[in-house]
């Protein structure tokens, strides 16, 4: 028997750990686009409070925590979450309060391959002190949504964190590594079915007010799921950062809205644009495809995400150098390990290092545009937290039975693999522990890490311990559904 954190929960959030607790599947729904409505839950409303205390010894730590910034020292987070779901309305609101000692740390300035043009491409990692206030204090609304729908299809506004793709530890396009930004959404809030195929899709549009120039963010993400042996899910996302810069043309909000639907190749744009327009625009595009295979009998989940952030000239250009500015995530999760329903394990590897083609055609770095703050919001990247010219290996083992989940993990992460004189290396040991007792969920997250070759030199190293202790209570109900 094993539990999944589902009953009494209307909305499955972006939080990647919960996707493994939920066994990657709830009521046969894929969790590759989150947040998502739990269609197996009949509750009309959901109320939860959460308190968390955290401590980081030497510098800021933790990834994929949304707006819960964990600076050096002690911190505290509290929130109340209310969610109402009816046949045509989804409404959620979560007021929060966060305070952190945010003590000073030693500042490291990593060199940049672009010099003064883009000096901070490697300085927006999660161990940097992005806020200087002591203490750092913040309050407001998070994870809040108003969505009008008919049979799950509709439109609305939200600032809830998002996660796109099959990864547990990272994604090439969207994670909950930073504060959720406000956006307009059109699409589906749970999986829909057309004949034998299930699908989900979303269009996202936002004006990023925390980035200089208030640029636009527009994105399209969708997947199709085919039931067979294995169950195959194919997905795609296209994301644009645009505007906020002087151009050779008039660029309006409606131009930004349409970008994810534009032709893929520059040659095609040249045919469509007026003669005095430059087809090579200054907008920042990322494009990814993912495939997820689930074999039900051996209970194995294999997945891959492949992406690029370069504008290709034409098909010949793509065929000649498909690896230019490319990145990949591969992973595997095995449930029922050793024929024991309570044990699962897996790994995930992300390779985002600079492609070798930069030697003869330039570029090669993901999230390198200083005009768009290196694809950060509130100081951290919303995509892969390892950042530009990096790779990231994550290995985990989990045990869950009845009321608890125990999940130790190992993480090996490098920065500046190609550019750095000596790549910066982070080695991390993690522990996630969840325990349910009556109406309460208790959780502990501990990380012990070493960072070698800081700022790409061998004469400076760091180590850190960080811990987060939390408690949640569902005030309407909190039950763990047992599955045999």
The third-level CATH topology is: Porin
Give the full name of the CATH homologous superfamily. Capsule assembly protein Wzi
CA(first)-CA(last) distance: 5 Å
Structural class computed from helices and strand pairing: mainly beta
User: Which second-level CATH architecture applies?
Assistant: Beta Barrel
**How much is the average pLDDT?**
87
| Unreliable residue stretches | 1-7, 477-484
What is the overall silhouette?
globular
Largest sheet: 18 strands, antiparallel, barrel
Share of residues in strands: over 45%
Helix content estimate? under 10%
- Report the top-level CATH class: Mainly Beta
Domain count: 1
Number of strands: 29
**Continuous helix count:** 5
Radius of gyration: 22 Å
Task: Provide structural commentary.
With 484 residues, the protein is mainly beta. It has a single domain (2-483), classed as Capsule assembly protein Wzi (Porin, Beta Barrel). The protein is built from five helices and 29 strands. It has helices at residues 16-21, 253-258, 266-272, 315-320, 358-361; strands at residues 2-4, 11-12, 25-26, 29-30, 33-34, 36-37, 45-56, 73-85, 89-100, 136-150, 153-158, 163-164, 183-188, 192-194, 197-207, 216-226, 231-242, 284-295, 300-308, 326-334, 343-351, 376-377, 380-381, 390-401, 404-415, 424-437, 440-452, 462-474, 481-483. It has an 18-stranded antiparallel barrel. Strand 20 and strand 21 form a beta hairpin. Mean pLDDT is 87; it is low at 1-7 and 477-484.
